[in-house]
Design goal:
The chain is α/β, with parallel strands linked by helices and about 575 residues long. The chain has 18 helices and ten strands. The longest helix is centred in the middle third of the chain and has 53 residues.
Length: about 575
């Protein structure tokens, strides 16, 4: 039980001192709780002995008032230290999570892990933040209160104190067993919630496909099963705790009844004064009341620990190493030296070597799955190479500070992601300090200013998540504007015109021409016509560079590139026979 308290203190890091002070004030609060009872006992003894005078009444009244005031002060200190600390802890942890996720390799963010991350961030962290400090306070205050009350009773009458102490010890043993019972199911509860989040994300992201193929029933059944599993686990948790709760209530009732019997017996045989017996009979109900509070808090505490386990497991994932080496680059050649890479066990690149000269266009050509996009991802260090090195200006990118590397790279890919925010903020994401004049100038170059101004709120128009309220071509141009605003010297371009209509293609191509001026451009080519004038074309097949050169040189070799070019000519000249 106290392992929950210890775990929360350890997790609180630099705020642990505040929690320790909160525990100290909880002890003082527990002492003051018993103050009024002691003063009432004092007055009853005086009355029983016919010794009560006005000064005694004043002492009792003043003592009760002071006890109540001190208790309120200590409770306020405990709440202030714990509640405020809880919000501070998780404010810091959320910032830490954001920085940590940026350092994870992109391979981590599979669908399964996306559900896991979402569950940790949206469920576990929120649950701990909302219930953590309150649960900690209840466990600490109630436990200390019971222990101090038992000590106080033992000092007043050791005979009753022995029974109270035994009842307290056995009740704590029952609570510990209850905690172990909840241990068995709390992890399972967190796992089914993680699967539920994953299934919901999959269902929502794939809703268009589900509708198109009339699979609503099948997929609804999968979601229904996840909800059912979650429900079953929660019911199982409640059922599992019924027996320990019943045992605890029964044992406390038995102990209470036995203490009342003993107090009555001691009065009848003259070994206990009547006022003390009355105090015992009244006080005994308050002594054991905290056990009910602890019992109701323990399952919450165990769920919190399971959430912390999952959070810490997430934070233990291997990140991309950052050597924090600040490098001032004045040359932007990109060079691969004997680079090999595999996704899990599947080899994608095999001993790749090439050099993309500064302010030149290097095109990557090849069939789907040959490794073109992987090359671009490795340059941005979304993953780390397994063998070989990637260098910019002769410096291994793994030795550069991550921020230093990424500030020199802009990426424009076919799959554009825009945030659920204004168009202005989406563009300024690349340069938050940019002025409105800079943004407008860039948007004109990116050929998106006109359609933005046609919107009702112009640059202040809020677009849906992923840019869902814009067309594909409009999203592409905003993406290009964002890249232009960043003005990075290296551009990674997954040919943006490959899947848009002819009208948008012209605008996007004009925007790209503005973007890549005087840049080191590495382009993943889907339409060979767009890279005809490239300074270097790399033909990739099965993870290897099989041809390299300019367009005319490669056509003259009549190899793989020549065949791709011939297919391109054939595909552009087809027509439907009447």
């Amino acid at each position: 039980m106290f392992s929950i308290v210890k775990r929360m203190i350890n997790f609180s890091g630099k705020y642990s001192g505040r929690l320790k002070w909160a525990i100290f004030f909880s002890v003082l609060e527990s002492i003051t709780i018993n103050g009024p009872i002691l003063f009432i006992l004092y007055s009853l003894i005086k009355i029983n002995n016919n010794e009560l005078v006005k000064s005694d009444v004043l002492i009792v009244a003043l003592g009760v008032v002071i006890s109540v005031i001190l208790r309120a002060i200590f409770r306020r200190l405990v709440d202030g230290l714990q509640s405020g600390t809880g919000y501070n802890i998780f404010a810091d942890e959320r910032m830490k999570i954001g920085d940590y996720l940026k350092k994870l390799p992109m391979g981590y963010f599979t669908e399964g892990n996306i559900g896991y991350v979402s569950a940790v961030l949206s469920s576990d962290i929120n649950f701990i933040e909302e219930h953590g400090m309150d649960t900690l306070s209840k466990i600490v205050s109630s436990s200390i209160g019971v222990i101090i009350s038992a000590i106080m009773i033992t000092i007043i009458d050791y005979r009753i104190g022995i029974i109270v102490s035994l009842t307290t010890i056995i009740s704590f043993i029952i609570l510990n067993k209850m905690l172990k019972k909840s241990d068995e199911i709390s992890v399972e509860k967190q796992e089914v919630q993680s699967k539920l989040v994953s299934n919901i994300i999959e269902y929502v992201k794939g809703i268009s496909v589900i509708k198109a193929f009339n699979l609503e029933g099948d997929k609804s059944n999968a979601i229904y099963k996840s909800f059912k599993d979650t429900r079953d686990v929660l019911i199982k948790l409640e059922k599992m705790l019924v027996k320990p709760f019943t045992s605890l209530d029964g044992f406390i009732a038995l102990g209470t009844g036995f203490i009342i019997f003993l107090a009555s017996y001691f009065v009848t045989n003259g070994t206990m004064e009547l006022p003390l017996a009355f105090m015992m009979m009244i006080f005994i109900y308050q002594i054991f009341l905290p056990f009910k509070v602890i019992g109701s808090s323990l399952p919450l505490g165990r769920i919190m620990i399971a959430g912390l386990d999952r959070y810490e497991k997430l934070m233990e994932e291997k990140v991309l190493e950052d050597y924090n080496k600040k490098v001032e680059l004045n040359n932007f050649d990109v060079e691969f030296e004997n680079v090999s890479f595999a996704y899990e066990k599947e080899n994608v690149l095999n001993n790749i070597s090439f050099k993309a000269e500064e302010k030149s266009m290097t095109a990557l050509v090849g069939s789907s799955g040959c490794g073109k996009t992987t090359i671009a991802n490795l340059i941005a260090r979304f993953w780390d190479v397994e063998k070989g090195t990637i260098k910019i200006r002769g410096v291994d990118i793994k030795e550069m500070e991550m921020e230093c590397l990424l500030k020199n790279i802009s990426m424009v890919f076919q799959k554009v992601y825009l945030f659920n925010d204004t168009i202005l903020n989406n563009i300024k994401f690349a340069k938050p300090e940019a002025t409105m004049e800079e943004v407008i100038e860039i948007c004109k170059k990116a050929r998106c200013h006109d359609f933005i101004m046609d919107l009702e709120k112009g640059y202040d128009t809020v677009i849906g998540e992923g840019g869902s309220t814009l067309s594909g071509g409009e999203k592409q141009r905003i993406s290009i504007a964002r890249a232009m605003l960043k003005n990075a010297p290296i551009i990674l371009l997954d040919e943006a015109t490959a899947s848009v209509d002819p009208d948008n293609e012209r605008y996007i191509q004009e925007a790209i021409n503005e973007l890549v001026k005087n840049k080191t451009l590495i382009i993943i080519a889907h339409r060979l016509s767009t890279i005809k004038n490239a300074d270097k074309i790399l033909v990739i097949d099965k993870g290897k560079i099989i041809e390299e050169g300019k367009h005319d040189e490669l056509i003259g070799k009549k190899g793989k590139y020549y065949k791709l070019w011939q297919r391109r000519i054939q595909s552009t000249s087809w027509k439907v026979n009447p």
